[in-house]
Amino acid sequence: xxxxxxxxxxxxxxxxxxxxxxxxxxxxxxxxxxxxxxxxxxxxxxxxxxxxxxxxxxxxxxxxxxxxxxxxxxxxxxxxxxxxxxxxxxxxxxxxxxxxxxxxxxxxxxxxxxxxxxxxxxxxxxxxxxxxxxxxxxxxxxxxxxxxxxxxxxxxxxxxxxxxxxxxxxxxxxxxxxxxxxxxxxxxxxxxxx
Length: 194
Hints:
Elements: E1 6-10, H1 16-28, E2 32-34, H2 44-57, E3 60-63, H3 67-71, H4 73-91, H5 95-115, H6 123-138, H7 141-154, H8 172-183
Parallel strand pairs: 1-2, 1-3
């Protein structure tokens, strides 16, 4: 079983009978294939934006290769749209880099709040920031972000009697120093927390 995978099926209109067999095969395996066979619209500018959005919204692009597909300007335009999207993705930061950057910003905000005296550096803050920096180091970016955000969002609204696991007695300066060392490393995510 492939799963509820979204597939854009690129094909030439001349191949519609064969392509329907491909579509049926994919649907039997619990996927959601999409194929266009538009006869009412003749102006490309009427329907091309819709086709392009659908290509980008799918998990996979399935090119049904044939002589007719090689000659089809629409199939070639669809393939070109996929190639442009691939090049754009290659230039954009990876998901791991984005998550690392978000975690770094949260940790930095937590450390800054303590350094500037906006928050105390009690057991709760120390524990959250200590574990956030360790998780950043380990590549657990989502967890690091959540732990750092706990310091900033909970702040003085928490009870001073909250049970806290005491972390090692690192000062805020030592945490800042470890954080800055880790920040300069490339992103390498080891787990995802959803």
